[in-house]
Amino acid sequence: MKLKKIHMGSLLKERVEESDLDMARIAKFFKCSEEEIQEHFERRDLYCEDLLKWSKLLEYDFFRIYTQHLILYAPQRNVHYNKVTAKKSSLPQFRKNIYTKEIIEFILEKINKGKMSKNEVIEHYNIPKTTLYKWIYKHEKSLIKKNDPPSI
To answer: What are phi and psi of 132, to 5 degrees?
Structure first.
């Protein structure tokens, strides 16, 4: 999946096709016409409220796609950097970075195919060196397990 340029409408359409949902049911759920649903599929982005409805209807977290984009292309920097005052935010605080299985596979694929070196990945995506090496170690370990013959 391309996480750099996200076209949410095409992702919605793909998920609808996978789940074999009837357009009439979707239109009824959104309380609009089937033509308006088709317009959703053509849009690059949607209102949050509409995306939340799509996520519920299709039982898929479409917001996670944006979250993964943020992790890869705009990682959170040091929390204390340029901190003037210790203001407490009313917004929920999240853990620094949560790397999903898809993100890890995406990065390891770049390294394995020679598209990026380990140092380039560390610098470009701001991933801690120890974290990257743990991923590589676990990935190699899982490959060895898959290739082992079954014991008798």
So the answer is: -60, -45
